[in-house]
Amino acid sequence: MNKLRDLSASALREASRVVREGGVIAFPTETFYGLGACPFNAHAVQRVFDLKGRVLQAAPILVLIRSRTDLETLTSEITPTAERLMETYWPGPLTLVFRASDSVPSVLTAGTGTIGIRLSAHADVQRLLAAVGGPLTGTSANRSGHPPATTAAEADRTVGTDVDLILNGGETPGGLPSTVVDTTVAPPRLVREGCIPKASLLSIIDSLAA
Fold first, then answer.
1. Half-sphere CA count of 126, side-chain side, radius 13 A
2. d(Cα 37, Cα 111) in Å, to the nearest integer?
3. What is the Cα–Cα distance from 27 to 128, expressed in whole angstroms?
4. What is the pLDDT of residues 165-191, one digit of tens each?
5. Whole-model pTM above 0.90?
6. Maximum Cα–Cα distance for the chain, whole Å?
7. How far apart are CA 191 and CA 91, in angstroms?
8. What gap in Å lies between CA 161 and CA 204, rounded to an integer?
9. Architecture of the domain whose range is 4-209
10. What are the sequence ranges of the domains in the chain?
11. In angstroms, rounded to a whole number, what is the distance separating the alpha carbons of residues 196 and 94?
């Protein structure tokens, strides 16, 4: 199999097969290339941790979804604040932290019992998720401590030996990562300020508390 493929229909079918069989793929997102594996497959998720060289307890791995209906199998609770933030910013560069459902392997949550989820507006991401038929991990395609890849060639050089397929969507723009908000606590906690500024989020959160 040619590991480096353009984003053709046949390549997306191949990506779907790889993910179903517990493999790991690299793919373009709206910022950098990401590493995709089935979030319900503990072995596949462990491969992502091992590939990145990330300590298991360091941080959970982000999951990308097709639509809010995917939350049913990934989360055990959706707070009113989370609902409002999703209505305002999804699809978009906001990662929300939820309590994970029992169907999510503990390796994905790094033992925290929580899961970070984002609904991406990127067309290629949505095409990939539609082909796979479900959510995918979306952590950046790089070794921990190294810059994330913005091209398929960079992804190939840095993680190519350990992934099963790389989807080439051209150069990604890089830039700020998604903003991350933990909705499992009250009031919600800003974990990371990214594309969405803190002031914008606080205006939504404060309006709910009023």
1. 10
2. 18
3. 9
4. 999 999 999 999 899 999 999 889 999
5. yes
6. 57
7. 19
8. 44
9. Alpha-Beta Complex (3.90)
10. 4-209
11. 7
